[in-house]
């Protein structure tokens, strides 16, 4: 069954491969440009030389010590968000079922706000944001569960909890000192500002660890797309696999949120763009990851360099992604009309 | 969303039945008014310093020191503001649900409040000395633009569309607007300070000036709402039938958008974004009265203030001597209600 399908879709596969390669190339290019931009402009040649250790110490400090962790994190986090979105959109069978839309980001934000205000330091932000995101995800899953999880219910339950947590966050910020509140609000805007090598190492390590179970789960995700019964017939333990996928997807999203704050809509848009370009019917994890990396690196570069003051990348993605989402809804309802 | 069950007054009902139903509805309305009155009294009695009812009554009549200050200068204005905001949001929610025939419509959920809030934020940022009136007008601009955009999205997709499309469109637009607003606020420390308390939906410490600023606009919104109610009853029958009945659907729509703008813009300019109130109240009203929009609006007019005042009282009482803003309380109550609604077999049609 899968064999026959594979043959028929060899063209889609080729398109996906070409897209991935092209996107990867463009992402590398964007990364090199991003490394050269800033208060001190550095030519692309010098950037490459600095990366291989063949430039002066001054340039090397700027490129490798200051700018590289940010760009690297843009790539890693973008990929993580793209993967997370692809997993959730496949599970909910809905383009809008991505973690940012259904409220996991706000759970992670609540965790971070609680730790910033209650503990007063940023040391516990990462674990508490992870805990908050995963707890919210489980709550959404359980509340939406009724003889299986239906996509529509999952989304509305997510929206309800987002509103609830948003209000709680506002209240917590109100109780905090101005300094703490502003710190939390800066974090909440979603930005790669001020991330250094230690953050980059930690973030990349967690994402890599999460990729391991995904190697095993990816095939099963494809089978789940054929329907629960078909997947069960092929020997997939449907609900455990689904739960595992949710945990991995949430963790990927929560790592990003923990270090950079909520960066909305990348998880929503990346898999959708891939799907539209390759015209493939199902989930495509690797292209979605590369697309996410491309989007985040480019958005961050623009947000940092184009406006008169550096804006948080979260603002860029929210405007781009929101516009895309509205367009998507319009396109979807047009299709329904036909 | 079948058309058959939504006819306001089933034609087969006898005259006696109708009179009976009317009496029941009026009785219910009286009960709602009584509930509101009780809540207002509670709102004057409870707070970080609970006062005995006797002292409250005494304070209303003559100057008896501390109680007089607390009751007259703090609790009465905030209660009145809660009433105005509550009825504005409830009526706005009822109108939106009636027009979109979507049980999940809510000014907060559909992003209209976020649009109004962005208007206020931009006004404060652009004109630091912006008076209340300018802020209210900025809120109207934001609200009307968002309402039009959301209704446009909602009106696409024809008959079989799921109620979620509209909600998602609203949530998306709301998220974008809120993201822009919070960034604008973030880049400016003084704006951050003033916006922080406003964003939480609190009716405390705003006093009579806030009430006086928004009351005329809320009044205008209610007049438009009263005009739109009859047309909305026709809308409930479906677009084709409504046109056949002769009502002008476009006028109804414009009246609804105008009313929602005035009501929701005023409420948001005064107290910030309040979630779910506009969703819950019309549901309670519809549950009591059935689908006649005029009765739903009348009930919302009383139940909205009741819920808002109740939320304010609860927020004052649970963490004495601290306070939880009323907007946070409505979100905490409303989210489970929304979840309950989608967990039922089907979201209830209108």
Automatic annotation (TrEMBL), chain A:
Q: Which InterPro entries match?
A: ABC_BtuC-like (IPR037294), ABC_transptr_permease_BtuC (IPR000522)
GO molecular-function annotation terms?
A: transmembrane transporter activity
Compartment(s) of residence: Cell membrane
Major localisation: membrane
**What's the protein here called?**
Iron complex transport system permease protein
Q: Which Pfam families does this one have?
A: FecCD
Highest taxon of the lineage:
Bacteria
Source species, please? Glycomyces sambucus
Bilayer topology annotation: Multi-pass membrane protein
Asked whether the keyword Nuclease is assigned, the reply is: no
Its ancestry begins with: Bacteria, Bacillati, Actinomycetota, Actinomycetes, Glycomycetales
UniProt cross-references to SUPFAM superfamilies, sorted A to Z: ABC transporter involved in vitamin B12 uptake, BtuC
* Transmembrane annotation, as ranges: 12-35, 71-91, 111-144, 151-174, 200-218, 254-273, 285-303, 309-330
GO BP annotations of the record are:
siderophore-iron import into cell
Q: Write the record's keywords in alphabetical order, separated by commas.
A: Cell membrane, Membrane, Transmembrane, Transmembrane helix, Transport
| UniProt family annotation | Belongs to the binding-protein-dependent transport system permease family. FecCD subfamily.
Q: Which GO terms describe its cellular component?
A: plasma membrane
From TrEMBL, chain B:
> What is the annotated localization of this protein?
Cell membrane
Q: Which domain of life is it from?
A: Bacteria
Per the record, the GO terms for biological process are: siderophore-iron import into cell
Q: How does it sit in the membrane?
A: Multi-pass membrane protein
Show the CDD domains listed in the entry: TM_ABC_iron-siderophores_like
SUPFAM superfamilies, sorted: ABC transporter involved in vitamin B12 uptake, BtuC (SSF81345)
Q: Which GO terms describe its cellular component?
A: plasma membrane
**InterPro entries per record:** ABC_BtuC-like, ABC_transptr_permease_BtuC
Question: What keywords would UniProt list here?
Answer: Cell membrane, Membrane, Transmembrane, Transmembrane helix, Transport
The membrane-spanning stretches of this chain are 26-46, 76-96, 108-128, 134-154, 166-187, 207-229, 250-276, 296-319, 326-343
Q: Which molecular-function annotation in GO is an example for this chain?
A: transmembrane transporter activity
Report the Gene3D superfamilies cross-referenced here: ABC transporter involved in vitamin B12 uptake, BtuC (1.10.3470.10)
Pfam family of this protein, just one? FecCD
Family statement drawn from the similarity comment of this UniProt entry: Belongs to the binding-protein-dependent transport system permease family. FecCD subfamily.
> What name does this protein carry?
Iron complex transport system permease protein
Which organism is this protein's natural source?
Glycomyces sambucus
């Amino acid at each position: 069954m899968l064999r026959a399908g594979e043959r028929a879709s060899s063209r889609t596969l080729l398109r996906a491969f070409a897209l991935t390669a092209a996107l990867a190339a463009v992402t590398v290019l964007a990364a090199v440009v991003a490394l050269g931009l800033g208060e001190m402009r550095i030519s692309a040649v010098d950037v490459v030389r600095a990366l291989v250790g063949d430039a002066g110490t001054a340039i090397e400090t700027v490129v490798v010590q200051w700018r590289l962790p940010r760009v690297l994190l843009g790539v890693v986090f973008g990929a993580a968000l793209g993967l997370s979105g692809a997993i959730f959109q496949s599970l909910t069978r809905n383009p809008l079922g991505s973690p940012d839309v259904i409220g996991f980001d706000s759970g992670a934000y609540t965790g971070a706000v609680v730790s910033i205000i209650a503990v007063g330091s940023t040391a516990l932000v990462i674990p508490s944001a992870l805990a908050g995101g995963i707890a919210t995800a489980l709550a959404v899953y359980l509340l939406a569960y009724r003889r299986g999880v239906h996509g529509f219910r999952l989304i509305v339950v997510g929206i309800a909890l987002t509103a609830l947590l948003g209000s709680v966050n506002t209240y917590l910020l109100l109780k905090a000192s101005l300094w703490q509140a502003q710190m939390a609000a800066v974090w909440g805007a979603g930005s790669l500002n001020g991330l250094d090598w230690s953050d980059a190492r930690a973030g990349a390590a967690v994402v890599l660890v999460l990729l391991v179970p995904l190697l095993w789960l990816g095939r099963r995700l494809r089978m789940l797309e054929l329907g629960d019964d078909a997947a069960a017939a092929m020997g997939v333990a449907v609900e455990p696999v689904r739960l595992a996928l949710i945990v991995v997807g949430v963790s990927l999203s929560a790592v990003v949120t923990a270090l950079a704050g909520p960066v909305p809509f990348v998880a929503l848009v990346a898999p959708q763009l891939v799907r539209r370009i390759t015209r493939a019917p199902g989930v495509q994890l690797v292209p979605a990851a590369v697309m996410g990396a491309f989007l985040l690196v480019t958005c961050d570069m623009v947000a940092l360099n184009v406006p008169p003051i550096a804006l948080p990348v979260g603002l860029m993605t929210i405007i781009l992604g929101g516009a895309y989402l509205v367009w998507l809804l319009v396109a979807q309802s047009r299709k329904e009309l036909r | 969303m079948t058309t058959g069950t939504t006819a306001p007054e089933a034609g087969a009902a006898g005259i006696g039945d109708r009179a009976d139903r009317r009496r029941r509805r009026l009785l219910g309305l009286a009960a709602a008014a009584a509930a509101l009155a009780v809540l207002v009294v509670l709102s004057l009695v409870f707070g970080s310093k609970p006062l005995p009812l006797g002292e409250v009554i005494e304070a209303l009549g003559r100057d008896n020191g501390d109680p007089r200050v607390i009751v007259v200068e703090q609790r009465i204005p905030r209660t009145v503001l809660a009433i105005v905001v509550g009825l504005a949001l409830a009526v706005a929610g009822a109108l939106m649900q009636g027009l979109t025939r979507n049980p999940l419509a809510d000014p907060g959920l559909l992003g209209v409040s976020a649009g109004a809030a962005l208007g206020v934020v931009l006004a404060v940022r652009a004109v630091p000395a912006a008076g209340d009136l300018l802020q209210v007008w900025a809120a109207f601009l934001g609200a009307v633009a968002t309402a039009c955009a959301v209704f446009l999205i909602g009106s696409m997709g024809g008959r079989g569309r799921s109620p979620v499309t509209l909600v998602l469109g609203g949530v998306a637009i709301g998220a974008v607007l809120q993201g822009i607003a919070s960034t604008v606020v973030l880049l400016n420390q003084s704006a951050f300070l003033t916006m922080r308390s406003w964003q939480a939906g609190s009716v405390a410490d705003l006093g009579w000036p806030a009430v006086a600023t928004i009351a005329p606009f809320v009044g205008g919104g209610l007049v438009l709402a009263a005009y739109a109610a009859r047309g909305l009853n026709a809308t409930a029958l479906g677009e084709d039938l409504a046109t056949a009945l002769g009502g002008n659907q476009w006028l109804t729509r414009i009246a609804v958008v105008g009313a929602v703008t005035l009501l929701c813009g005023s409420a948001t300019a005064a107290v910030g974004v309040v979630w779910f109130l506009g969703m819950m109240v019309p549901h309670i009203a519809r549950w009591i009265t059935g689908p006649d929009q005029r009765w739903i609006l009348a009930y919302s007019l009383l139940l909205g203030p009741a819920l808002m005042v109740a939320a304010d009282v609860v927020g004052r009482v649970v963490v004495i001597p601290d306070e939880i803003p009323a907007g946070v309380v409505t979100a905490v109550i409303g989210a489970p209600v929304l979840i309950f609604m989608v967990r039922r077999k089907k979201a209830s049609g209108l």
